[in-house]
Write a structure and sequence with these properties.
132 residues; alpha+beta
Length: 132
């Protein structure tokens, strides 16, 4: 600490100590709230990992081309099976490819819906739309 010198009257010297300020950190300060938020984010991250594991066990069945193409996909968008009816296997290759792409994209869209629903249950509005 340093001292400051003040003169009040002629030949009178007074010494005063400089004041120091030490803020107290508790849960009501910015840093306490930040710590709480970080804890909540870690908790959400853990729940998201649990959901991803649960999505691995969910199976989504989608059919296309009037039921001639069937795709099974899990909630993490991994294709589990693909079935093509004999009638399509002897037809035009271009039509088969078109129907496969359409059915596959429908299966991915359905998996996205299931995943988003599960994530919303955990996030409870904490995660902005489109982030997941």
């Amino acid at each position: 600490m340093t001292n400051s010198t003040f003169k009040f009257k002629k030949n009178t010297i007074v010494y005063a100590k400089k004041a120091t300020f030490t803020p107290k950190l508790n849960n009501n300060t910015m840093f306490g709230k930040l710590g709480d938020m970080m804890g909540k984010l870690a908790e959400v991250k853990q729940k998201i990992e649990e959901i991803k594991i649960g999505l691995e066990a969910k199976t989504i069945h989608v059919s296309g081309a009037g039921g001639d193409i069937k795709i099974a996909m899990n909630g993490n968008k991994k294709v589990l099976s693909l079935e093509i009816a004999d009638a399509l296997q002897h037809g035009a290759k271009d039509e088969l490819q078109k129907q496969l792409l359409l059915t596959f994209n429908n299966a991915v869209a359905e998996a996205d819906k299931v995943s988003a629903e599960e994530m919303k249950k955990v996030a409870g509005g904490m995660i902005p739309p489109g982030l997941l």
